[in-house]
Every structure is written in structure tokens, then in C-alpha cells.
Amino acid sequence: MTNNKITQLLGIEYPIIQAGMIWASGWRLASAVSNAGGLGLIGAGSMYPDILREHIQKCKAATAKPFGVNVPLLYPNIEEIINIIIEEKVPIVFTSAGNPKTWTATLKEKGIKVVHVVSSAKFALKCQDAGCDAVVAEGFEAGGHNGREETTTMCLIPSVRKQLNIPLIAAGGIYDARTMLAAMVLGADAVQIGSRFVATPEASSHLAFKEAVVQAKEGDTQLSIKKLTPVRLLNNPFAQQIQNAEKNGASTEELEQILGRARAKKGMFEGDMTEGELEIGQVSALINEIKPAGEIVAEIMKEFNQLVQNPLAR
Questions:
Q1: How far apart, in whole angstroms, are the C-alpha atoms of residue 116 and residue 107?
Q2: Do 100 and 143 have their domain in common?
Q3: Strand, coil or helix: what is 63?
Q4: Which of 50, 63, 256, 257 could cross-link 31 (Cys pair, CB 3.0–4.6 Å)?
Q5: Is residue 218 part of a domain?
Q6: What is the pLDDT of residues 143-193, one digit of tens each?
Q7: pTM
């Protein structure tokens, strides 16, 4: 079951993909996951072009295995970013937050595999039509930027699978062998895991943020800022300020003013647990330790293979 369309497409050993999260997914995390047999992704969304090039080069030096870059298509320097990816011969690109038609053909002409992240079956079909090699369908349990549809992973994956012909990767609410197996039973060929990999020594996010993730309890995240772009945040004074503003009918302009600039960097990278934006998924409530990324991959695969033999074992 672990040798399937995704492992063959991406040239990886295990169908585990580390999400390209802003302020967490630098070259250390990406190379650690790739070296462990999964697919590591560098998160370009929080990097200036020259910083991205540096991370790609360091990742190439740290692993001989495939890795990729996650690129939000709304990136202001998108053309420069795409050119760097092509120049550095990155083999795999995950795109998000934009129209997959814009850059898919350009990347594929250079022999790069392209995967796009969506939150609905409708947009998954648009990715297929655009020529994407695979799709990530992300449920509303996921951390960070999220779909307006608020469809859960358990509903989204079978809906997308029913209509999609290309390989499917499930994301949102996946952190261990059981959730991985559940996603694959629902029709996914692989899983993308984000929040669990935030709580690793290799993640570039601040230790205070990692410790907050480990301490999170059920109900400690909320989907917020829906008038701008829905984002799942860990509860803190800033998140409460946003929630109060939304309850009081704040306009888009008022929410933009509260959000300000570099709010995510302040929280996740600089460790400001009061005024920072803390993007994390619902599974943070199930994460109870900071553990090396390679150990996480090995643990998930060992338990996954046991579960395949006896899925009802407790």
C-alpha cells in the first residue's frame, strides 16, 4: 500500500509529505523528512527570493533524495521565485493560493512535477484540467490558510476521489498512522502532514511556538479572519482580538488594520505569543512532545504497516 501512484510519481519511499508551512519549513526540516523517506517541502511563502535560493541549495547539500518547494501563487515576487526554482532544478513544486493554470505548464516544460493544494472537488478538477500531476485536498481541520467551504477532511477526500483521475493527497487533521490509514481508506494515495512537523527540532519556527503547540488542548484553535482569507489560529490575545472584532461586525478594512504587517512572523518565527499570529491545525491538541522529524516518519510508518495487517487493533 505504501508503493503507489504518489511514491512512484515523486520518487519517494513513503507516502508522507511534509507541508510547506510559513516560518516552519526551512531546509533543515525538508531535508530531514526527505532523508527519512518522505517528501520534505521548503515553504517559500515566508522567504525573500535570495533566502529561498539559499534554502534550496542547503537542502540539496543535506539530502540526495527528492524534495520540493511550496509556492503560494499570490507571492508578490512569483516570477522571480519560479525562475529560481527552475534554475536550481527543484524536482517538485506544490502550488497553492491561486490559479494552477498560471504556472503549471511552465514548470512541467522544465520536467518539474506540479501538485496544487485545494479545498473542494470543484477546484481539484480545475487542477486536473490545468495539467497538475496530483492534487492535495485539504480539509478545514488544517492549520493556516483554509477553504471558505469549511469541508472536513473525512467528507472532502471521498468527494474529490469520486471525481478525480490523477493522484490524490489528503491533508488536514492527519498526524499519525491511524489518521493516515483513515485518509487512504477514504481514497487518498498519500498524506500531507503539517502541524506534527512544527513540533520538531528541525522546524525553523520559534521554540515558544512549538511549546504552545504541544500544550494546546481540544478547542484551542479557531477558523478566523473569514472576511479576508480564512485562517486557523491557535487561541491567544491576538486571536481573541480578531474574534471579538468579527463578532462586532468589523469591516474588511478594520480587520486588515488589526492584522497589520508581519503578524505571522511575529508569532511563529519571533515567538511573540501575545501579539503574534499562530497558525496551527486542530491536531495540535493531540501533539504532546517535540520529536525529531525522522523519528516521526519512522514511527508513523511502523505503526501504519502494523495497522494494515490489523486495522482494528487498539
A1: 12
A2: yes
A3: coil
A4: 63
A5: yes
A6: 988 878 889 999 999 999 999 999 999 999 999 999 999 999 999 999 999
A7: 0.95
